[in-house]
Amino acid sequence: MLQFILRRIAISALIMFLGSILLYVLMINSGDPLADLRESRAENREQLMQARIDNMGLDEPWWQRYLGWLTGVSRCFVLQCDLGTTRDGASVNALLLASAGASLRLVTVATFLAIFIGVTLGVLSAIRQYSGFDYAITFGAFLFFSLPVFWAAVLLKDFGAIRFNNWMADPAVSTTATAVVALVFALAVASLLGGSLRRQLVTGLVTFAVVFGVVFAFDQVTWWVQPALGLPLILIGALGALGFMLVMTVGLANRRILYAGLVTIGLGLVSYFVTGPLLEDPANWWVIFALAGATVLVGLAVGWVMGGYERRTAMVVSVGTALGMAFLVFMDRLLRGWAGFLDMAPGGRPIGTIGENRIIPERFTGDFWEGIFNWGVQLVLPTIVLTLISIAAYSRYTRGSMLETINQDYIRTARSKGLSDRVVFTKHALRNALIPITTIVAFDFASLLGGAVITETIFGWRGLGAMFRQGLEFVDPNPVMAYYLVAGGAAVLMNMLADIAYASLDPRIRR
Amino acid sequence: MTDNHRPDEPDPTPVASPVEEAYSVEKPIDLSQKSYSQGQLVRRRFFRHKGAMVSLFVLVFITGMAFTSIGYGIIPSWWDKTFYDAGATVDGGRPTLQLWPFQIGEHPFGQDTIGKDYFALTMRGTQRSLIVAFTVGLLSTVLGTIVGAAAGFYRGWVEAILMRVTDLFIIIPLLVLAAVLGKMAGGGIWSLALVLSLVSWTGLARLVRGEVLSLREREFVTAAEAIGTGSGRVIFKHILPNTIGTIIVSATLTIATTILLESALSFLNFGVRPPDTSLGLLISTYQNAFLTRPWLFWWPGLMILGIALSVNFLGDGLRDAFDPRQNRTAD
Known about the structure:
Structural class of chain A: mainly alpha
Strand content of chain B: under 5%
Number of domains of chain B: 1
CATH topology of chain B: MetI-like fold
Order of helices and strands of chain B: HHHHHHHHHHHHH
Mean pLDDT of chain B: 80
Helix content of chain A: over 70%
Number of strands of chain B: 0
Mean pLDDT of chain A: 83
Shape of chain A: globular
Shape of chain B: globular
Low-confidence stretches of chain A: none
Oligomer: heterodimer
Number of helices of chain B: 13
Low-confidence stretches of chain B: 1-17
Structural class of chain B: mainly alpha
Radius of gyration of chain A: 27 Å
CATH class of chain B: Mainly Alpha
CATH architecture of chain B: Orthogonal Bundle
Radius of gyration of chain B: 25 Å
Distance between the termini of chain B: 13 Å
Number of helices of chain A: 19
Largest sheet of chain A: none
């Protein structure tokens, strides 16, 4: 396994090196770096030109310029990176530090969300092949496949930011809108659970009533302005998480593990009150991470004590439940910060259309939770754009792969020996169906980084995309190469993660 | 979608076979049944794919409109306005197209900020985008097929280079490479199409290589080689016809990707540049007019979406037609 990974790293390093030569040569030949000065009417035109020529080394041959860049970059191995300067002499290192964080955060969040949602949708639509749900997902996938990123981004900016802000000023959901939302949910759930027409009708009606009631109730208590989950919703959600974990592992009938999960929820309830003051305004993210770590430990302990001979499964289930509940508690706190953030947002318009922060961090005075909204709310729209488009690819591939797996002989064997659908799908089919998906992750990540160039342009982020775009426009190789290093490095890393996932899903590779 | 086959069609996997049929040793062969060649079967399946048929209609309609309305080369135009002449702005440039009661009016897609007819502009953009997409589809398919076949058949250094180049394309985002090349191309559509072909052939090459790798081990290839057939003839006459499904499907998908890539590049100003226009460029120019003149933004976007969506559905229909296994699975 180690040898396998080392070989992959060596090959990737070689390719990155070759790619850098290719891109550098293409870059410096892509235009005239002095174009703007040639048209300038400044008095000291000649002087400016000479300064830029010296600065960028335009009088040197291409290989000398490239070697100069490469020497700077190779110092990264002794932790003294020098990525050169832009055409105006600003350090690319500083530029990169300022811009990389936001972009990588955006792309990483979008990747993980897309994998999770896309794979789930793909599996569900494969299990319910040829149902209304399947057709809807298929059509949706094609639609998002064919959607130009920039067009979708501009649309979302209008509907998600400008109109959402207008709506937020006086949030009220009309009865028609409530009914439409409830109808969509009802159709999806009924088609997903399947069964006879009568059963589908009943599920649909129940879902419709529940969703309609919930939205109506939220509207009555002006939830949109001061959202929160509250203890009852947290408990319901935690029970749901437990149910999900049980269905994915041993089924609801297993009493021992069910009780372990219930005890975990009980302990979670206790800690909700104990850690409440701590979560009121935590100093930084480490508090959150520490609490998450404690949650995992508690889950492990409960599973260990209660599990008996099914210790391992019990531990998995209780950790999953505990984390699910912890996430809900976190979300509850976070949502409570919304009201405060709304008061703070300029003009009462929470979502800005330009920049990474609603209020610049230096002037921001809110607490921890409101701070998350300050940068998080800006992250939402670009993330949605990127996620939607990759979800399409993931759900299509997962569906195809899952269908192929379901038709294998070993699935028929599993069914014929009397295993339930649940065991067949989760234990036998899913794991094998996921193997081909890992390969797509690497490709998709690279294309997402490309997509981020466009998304950042539209949402006005000073991220990697802006750096690349400006570098290319000015025929300035150093910023473009810095972008290449980050994008390429991230792609290599993603590739490696995919390989490791591949190896852990398919033991044959490890040998 | 295509699972409603007629009983007279040969069916590899019977849906539900009665018990007696399952136990009978000999299945009666009905000689009166008409038999179909591979090509006929594919065509029948394709023409029964409703989604693909609708898409084909949409695509032909859009292409026809784009090329005949304002004319192209020797094709005469029937639309009386051009995409470069500005006129007096009527009613704030609002579109005159109405569905009910139906009327086309003077400026069906409205007018832009200086009074150019937006229908003509959009059609011009569609024309440019279609030309780029189809050229890239053709060129990159030819290139990908040849390289892929050579890599799979001869192995050795061709294959090594192909695999490394594909790896390279995982590392450099496609859009980035295309943007640099597009900037070098200088804004003309033909040079843009050429450079885009250079970056979009690797996927197909890998697919073709995979198929050739397995086909070259088959008996019919050995037989052909045994009677002294040259390797060029073996590749083009014996192996490639068996990969035609993969190639055609991949070509359609390349066209769809190229439409999106070209418009994205033009949007970033690294693709088609003024005074010419393309759908991406139109959106880029008018994105800030969204709140005041939304139609300037909607039409080109819907055109891109329409073309890409129909090409994608067409590709799906073709894939089902060439390889019906996936569609007939499970129930």
